[in-house]
Amino acid sequence: MTRDAWLTCTDPALMLNFLGDRAGDRKLRLFVCAWGRDVWRHLSDERSRDAVLTAERFADGEATLADLLAAHRDAADAVQEIPLVLGGRHGKGVKSRKGTGTSKSAAEVARYAADPAWDARTAARAVAWKKGATRYALSNHLRDIFTPFRSAVLDPAWLTSTVLAMARYAYDSGDSSAVPILADALQDAGCGDEDVLTHCRDESAHVRGCWVLDAILGND
After folding, report:
1. Residue 140: inside a domain, yes or no?
2. By residue range, what is the domain housing residue 205?
3. Do 107 and 176 have their domain in common?
4. b/e for 121-152, b at 16 or more Cβ within 10 A?
5. Could you tell me which of 18, 124, 149, 207 has the fewest CB atoms within 10 Å of its CB?
6. Is 5 a domain residue?
7. Would 130 be classed as within a structural domain?
8. How far is the first Cα of the chain from the last one, in angstroms, to the nearest whole number?
């Protein structure tokens, strides 16, 4: 895959296969957590939401493997307990109550988030059959988190107290609207890196694991 192809690709499975072993565990975990945040409103079971939250904390070293395993087990139970009655034409699944199909799919995403075996290959399989807006969103998340065609290291001179504080706020709060403002602070600090400034000013959502925020904050 070329750099231009990466920047325009809307096939998240292809992107994940391209990343392969270069995609670290933390960033892959945060990728699926970003997906979990996308479907948050459809997570009707607290165990599903807890799985996403625990996975985020695990990725950042704030939860143990035991915590992740417990969250994964509970999230798997939550998926199983969402009923889907078989019937209808050609034996297709029929929703047993409003929103069941969507809720079940969302709960699966939460289960993925806490899966201790989550890796690039597993992620590619999980996204392979997604279509439309989901594919587009997941592709943007991958571009936000991974930067395979350049180093993510930034000039230490750009990391002023203002830049650090704004990056920390954006990361902890999940407030994407702060990231374009961060671009101005970086520019004021002397940053002329167009990749960095353009990425910060991109209107797509910036999630936990965003490569610019990680580079500023020193996250692996």
Report:
1. no
2. 156-217
3. no
4. eebbebbeebeeebbebbbbbbbbbbbbeeee
5. 149
6. no
7. no
8. 24
Domain assignment present for 55: yes
Q: What is the pTM of this model?
A: 0.89
| φ/ψ of residue 108, rounded to 5 | -65, -40
**In this structure, how many other beta carbons lie within 10 angstroms of the beta carbon of residue 110?**
34
Distance between CA atoms of residues 116 and 104, nearest Å: 20
Please check whether residues 42 and 112 belong to one and the same domain. yes
Tens digit of each residue's pLDDT, the chain (220 residues)? 999 999 999 999 999 999 998 999 999 999 999 999 999 999 999 999 999 999 999 999 999 999 999 999 999 999 999 876 555 455 454 444 445 788 999 999 999 999 999 999 999 999 998 899 999 999 999 999 999 998 888 999 999 999 999 999 999 998 888 999 999 999 999 999 999 999 999 888 899 999 999 999 999 7
Our count of domains for the chain comes to: 2
Is the same domain home to 108 and 181? no
